[in-house]
């Protein structure tokens, strides 16, 4: 009987530690969501738009196999980045995403070029991390309000920000090594 109790106790502890991880991950996600200036329904709608966009690209064989496109939705504004071999495919991708319900605007920043290499993609992730870290350590700056997307060393900044916050975000991003260009895709708020 004692052995069974010990096994149950050890099993319960391992299950609880898994639950603790889930609770911590959920709390972190909730904290990030609470810092966002978008409403929770808008955040969920943005996720839904991204899923629908991925599906639209996947269902179109020409777009899926012939391009390298990423989709980011923020406040129902969709940013398209990546590469397409022709202007026609770039336009087609924008048209497909524009058909999705609740998309207010499409910012088609797809470059007509061959897809970037695996190493360029990893470098983009590194640049994004450096930009976010620089913003995080900037005094009196709402870094959690800025979405950073990097594609082929070009940094795209999205968010609901004041003009002053936008200017500061651009300045921070421009001063990160490896960034070749900063593109603003902000929606502006009135200062409080």
What does this structure look like?
InterPro entries: BON_dom, Lipoprotein_DolP, Transpt-assoc_nodulatn_dom_bac. Residues 45-114, 123-190 form the BON domain. It comes from Aliikangiella coralliicola. This protein folds into 3 domains: 1-35; 40-112, Histidine-containing Protein, Chain: A; 118-188, Histidine-containing Protein, Chain: A. The chain has a 3-stranded mixed sheet with strand order 1-2-3. The chain contains 6 helices and 6 strands. By secondary structure, the chain is α/β, with parallel strands linked by helices. Strand 2, helix 4 and strand 3 form a beta-alpha-beta unit.
Q: Give the end-to-end Cα distance, rounded to a whole number of Å.
A: 65 Å
Q: How helix-rich are the residues, as a percent range?
A: 40-55%
Order of helices and strands: HHHEEHEHEEHE
In order across it, which strands form the biggest sheet?
A: 1-2-3
Compute the CA-based radius of gyration: 21 Å
Query: How many beta-strand elements?
Result: 6
Structural class: alpha/beta
Look at the structure and give the mean pLDDT.
87
CATH class (first level) name of the largest domain: Alpha Beta
CATH architecture of the largest domain: 2-Layer Sandwich
- Structurally, the number of domains stands at 3
Q: Approximately what portion of the residues adopt beta-strand conformation? A: 15-25%
- Strand count, sense and closure of the main sheet? 3 strands, mixed
Task: Tell me, briefly, the overall form.
Answer: globular
Count the DSSP helices: 6
Low-confidence regions: 2-9, 13-31
CATH topology of the largest domain: Histidine-containing Protein, Chain: A
